[in-house]
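dumping the sequnces here before i forget
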Amino acid sequence: MSVAVRGLRKIYSESQRNGKPVVALEDVDLEGQPGELLVVVGPSGSGKSTLLRCVAGLEKPDSGSVFIASREVTSVRPGDRDVAMVFQEYALYPHVSVSGNISFGLRARKIPAAEIARRVSSTAELLGLDELLHRKPPELSGGERQRVALARAIVRDPQAFLLDEPLSNLDAELRARTRADIRSLQRELEKTMIYVTHDQVEAMTMGDRVAVLRSGRVEQIGTPLDVYDRPANTFVGGFFGSPPMNMFPAEISPDHRRAATLGVRPEDVAFVGEDYAKLGGEVTLAETIGSEVIVHVAAKHGRFLIKAPRDDAPAPGDRVGLNFNNRSVHAFDAEGRRM
Amino acid sequence: MSFRSRPSSASLAWPYLMGIVVLVAVPAVGTLYLAFTEYFGIEAPNLVGIDNFTRMLGSDRFWTALGNSTIYVLIAVPLRVVAAVGLALLLHTRSTGSGAARTAVFLPTVVPDVAYALLWLYIFNPLFGPLTLGLEAVGISSPEWLVDPATARFSVALMSAFQIGEGFVIALAVRRSIPNHLYESAAVDGASSWFTLSRVTLPMLLPVLSLLALRDVIISFQANFVPALIVTEGGPRLATFFLPLYVYREGFRYGLLGYAAAVTLTMFAITAVVVVIQYRLAKRWRLV
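..and the predicted 3d for all of it:
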């Protein structure tokens, strides 16, 4: 079942930024297709959580519409939208057992007890929570709480799942593992999932498609590779990739003398002899990250970050030449749009 | 360089501890001693063993006062806890007028007891009291609040149900400490307001509810003294003749200070037993 928003606009008139009301969402159009995992990614304050809350019915948009399974639900109460939401803080009831937490939504909907027991037990099994059903949330680890929050959403068998930064309270190792778990769970359930995160790695690894949000506007929607290989603007280019894309001002060609920005990814730059180099500079820092080194080069156009294999990396103080394939260069116009 | 000893933080508690000793501990020990004496406040106390207690157990007045106090506690405590928590749940959000409403709820608590009692004497007046007039205006025949023994105890309990500022503030603080995402999650899960109240809010408030109930039992055994003395004078027909008033009459009207001390000690013991039972129950139900 699809989840869609059309022309969604939300203004927080009570909170101000630079003396003006905060525009959280500005004419957002977005559709999570049936069975798709759509990641909404953006920096903090980009409006991604507001978007999710509008879909859930926890915020009322100022204009625009929300559709779930092709039904307009803009003024439908959250409980009647048939979506399940996983909150960043998990939102588990501390005084209720794991089993009680998982069954909360079913009990609220007055599902018969035998049916509840059956569904809780199969969901607990799916998420490996069978041993923990009688514990209470304060007795659980962060990862276990996260799984309970997921179980509570899954057990309701909703039309769609809404996940608001569900991994941000986990440590790095657990985050990587849970990322993969959620992804495979979503494939298994074949349900639409809208997944909000500020983490570009989560967006790249999990999403069927990725929607990049900035200041309440959708900057680009596409598959993760699309967004990475063909960023729609300098913001998207700089947001994806670690370290971020190197950007420098340039003039495109003698006949269209338009001021523009060129971008090239750290892994697309190679060290060459200065005679063959497009650019030259001096190495100021070399950060080793296991098998690779991130080399910082001070060049005429600014600082460049280059990803190089460990054996091949120059040392701080070295003069180096930089070269890159013209096809790996991203060109942006004066407004920062892809050319 | 020399090391000077700094006063420990415990020493900062001395002024307070001195106050406790002089104002609470010494009188308490004095009461304990006097309870076993015959003492009229003129000559030295005369040890009489458990005579005061035997006399007390044989006194009809004592049993009447104990019965009245018990009924009062049974009415006042639930009324006060429900009022404090109910108002906290209604007024915890920051909306127009809710600040003024919260102030209004707290205000009766800071009115001096005697002024508060006189105010209620006016409110309960069977001829021109606003409560009587108000009820009659909407066609309900008003009970004779303080005149009828059946309603007098309830009237005094009703008075106390408005002096709930501290309990209200505690309940308000605890309600505000419940994270909002729990309510949002319940809303997305399709929980009705009643389901959310009974499965989320009240269970999460239970520890504070039991704390308030414990505290109110202690207060309610004692706090009816001023209204009973000023508003009802123990009447009508001894309906509001509570233990504190009994102690006061025996001790200060009839000068039986030893006997009054024995009744005070008994009152303390009864309160302690009730509080311990309540605490045990709360612990068994894992509320505290």
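The first strand of chain A starts at residue 3 and ends at 17.
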